[in-house]
Amino acid sequence: MEKTGSNGAVSNMNASINYYRNQVGAYQSQNEMIIEKKSRISAAKERVKNLIADCESVKETIQSKTSSGELYGEWNGRTLEGFDNAINYGVTEEYSSFIKQLEEILNMLCDEETRLENIYMENYGVIGKMLGIINNLKNEVEKSIN
Q: C-alpha angle with apex 123: 118 to 128, nearest 5 degrees?
């Protein structure tokens, strides 16, 4: 009779081990997906940073050429003033606005990357706890069999 009780306990422990192994597998799969998403986010962040740098360079070039007069040469008069205003207050402000929008996108990408990293670390902790539970259950099964 004692053997039957022991076999039932061993069966329950083996069922628990299988359950926790499946859970560990699920968390590991989720972490693999997180790594893939994080890789895509990192690539997107790099592209946005490059775009910001390119836009800032163009904006600085425009500002430099207009402030030095290099863009206009010998041109002067009312038409020049209108053109100068359009460049200085139109084009450069649009670049500034676009750069600001790109920086907001970059911030959102950083936030998403941090969120994914936090989930990954949380999962890793859960995986470690579950592996510890599996180890303890395996020990109990081994002791029950002995």
A: 130
Taking only the tens place, the pLDDT of each residue in 58-117 is 999 888 888 777 777 777 777 777 888 888 788 889 999 999 999 999 999 999 999 999
The four Cα atoms 112, 115, 117, 118 give a dihedral, to 10 degrees, of 180
**Which amino acid, 104?**
E
Alpha carbons 20 and 47: distance in angstroms, whole number: 41
144 contact partners, CB below 8 Å, separation of at least 6: 6, 9, 10, 13
Q: What is the pTM of this model?
A: 0.74
Dihedral-angle region of residue 73 (phi above 0 means left; psi in -120 to 50 means alpha; beta otherwise): left
As a whole number of Å, the end-to-end CA separation of the chain is 16
